[in-house]
Amino acid sequence: MRKIIVILLMLFPLFVFSEIIIQKDIDLNNDSENEKVILNGNYVSSVYVDNLKLSIIGKESTTINFDFGVYEPDISFYDFDGDGNLDIFFKGYSGGSGNYIYYYIYSYEKGELLSSKQSLIDLQAEFMDNFKALIKYKNYYTYIDLSDRKKQYIKMKAYNEYGQFTGDYKSLFLGGIAELKPVDFEHDGIYELKGTISLSGLFHADRIGYIYFIYSIREKQIKWLEISKVIYVK
Questions:
Q1: Residue 11: is it exposed, middle or buried by C-beta count within 10 angstroms (0-12/13-18/19+)?
Q2: Residue 48 backbone phi and psi in degrees, to 5
Q3: DSSP three-state, residue 20
Q4: Where are the alpha helices (DSSP H) in 1-61?
């Protein structure tokens, strides 16, 4: 019992005392007065931050507690919803083999505009006969030729020698969003998000290609979608 108490006392400061990770003074609502934007957290290691909390302090103040930790936390400011005010764009990386992005976009006057809990793009990807993969988004679709992996896929019993899919799971692996950055896609001063999603075949390391998209927060829809294929090398 005494040993447990000692361990809890050692961990107690980690949960109580957070550090200022990022602090910015910026006018978020065009009233010529700066608000203070502060990201607090606990450094679990020299590169990983947990117990993240975003605070906006001004005439009206608010605090958002994040239920995740990240590598490389970053905050930047862009007008995403077209109201002429700067919005807060927070992002960080999960780390690990997937290394996808956590993101959160907040308007000082309107509240949350977007978060990682929301799905930006609903894709379907599955194997087809004749060593092909079908990629579908809403009513749009395309095929990817996988014949360069023919020997490997037959050896792994995903296909037979006649090109018929014989694997247990038809779905391909769609990764999380691996990159997300603001771009002024229509050159109108209003920013969209350009993202990247990995596309894999029988397992995560069987990388087939990448899906690139541009998402409009103002219009709440995908504006542009492209799929590229990785040339398979043994």
A1: exposed
A2: -115, 130
A3: strand
A4: 2-16
